[in-house]
Amino acid sequence: MTHSPDLYALIIRLTAQKSGTLPATVGHLAHAAFLDILRQVDPAVSQAIHDINGRKPFTISPLHGYGNGRKGKLSLKAGQTGWLRVTLLDPTLFHTFIQYFLSGNHRPAIRLDNIPFHISEILSSPGSHPLAGYDSLQTLHAKWEQTTRLSDHTTIRLTFRTPTAFSLKNGRFRHMHTLPDPPLVFGQLASYWEALTGDSYIDKEDVRKFAAFGMVVARHKIQTHMVQFRKNKQVGFLGDVQFLIQDKENHPMIRYLNLLADLAFYTGVGSKTTMGMGQMMRIMNYEGRITKRSHPS
Fold first, then answer.
1. pLDDT per residue over 172-184, tens digit each?
2. pLDDT class of 281 with cuts at 50, 70, 90
3. Domain ranges for the chain
4. Same fold across 7-123 and 136-282
5. Which end of the chain has fewer CB within 10 Å, C or N?
6. C-alpha distance from residue 67 to each of 46, 61, 75, 147, 183 (Å)
């Protein structure tokens, strides 16, 4: 049975319309541009998204294709191309956002600070780009309910494509944790699943406990990276991580952890996912080693 999508990952191809400079980290600018697009189509939806306390049902990537910048600035030339990745976790939000590009009343464009960008293409179909696609929560659930030979799925490999950090509170102090600890990664993904479905496949606290004692980071190739926001800096980690499920007899948990690894393609994980941080994806072609890979273009 085919279910209607409720998870979407879009690649938005951009062309700079004039030369100029932008902050090297444009997450807050892309966030503002996204809300402005929603406002132009449906102000009520834009306001509702803005007013959500806690996790919002979308993520936005950094601006790709324009280099890493120097001294906190990106230099752009007119005609230079790049892209943003946006994921949407709600069908109403998707249809509102995409309507802006389908209305035909204007040439689709966005503005980041003082630079206007023409939108040349939006990729959303599976296979159109490694980071584009759509899926449904029901399909993800059914896929892993029907999966046999679970012993083949006790290694989960994820790549954290943009800097990732977890906001933790220790007594009176709050700090950002910059390591891919299994209970943080999978416990947070379990929280997202519950929020999106209203269903606790397995209670998120049980997932955290299992991940703390029944999973390990078997291998990794990560590094830290500094992100400069408008008023502060944030360190995050990025790179490849190989998680190993040690309890190979706990089939319900193996199913759920693999489901959550698939969900991560759309939700990301950690702090500031609506401003460029925490985007990630699963790597399925596991070969027992972590090697350097080029990013999709």
1. 778 889 999 999 9
2. very high
3. 7-123, 136-282
4. yes
5. N
6. 31, 14, 9, 41, 34
Q: Which fold has domain 7-123?
A: Alpha-Beta Plaits (3.30.70)
**CATH numeric code, 136-282:** 3.30.70.1900
Interhelix angle 137-145/251-267, nearest 10 degrees:
150
Please state whether beta strands 280-282 and 155-164 pair in parallel, antiparallel, or not at all (unpaired): antiparallel
Single pTM value for the model: 0.91
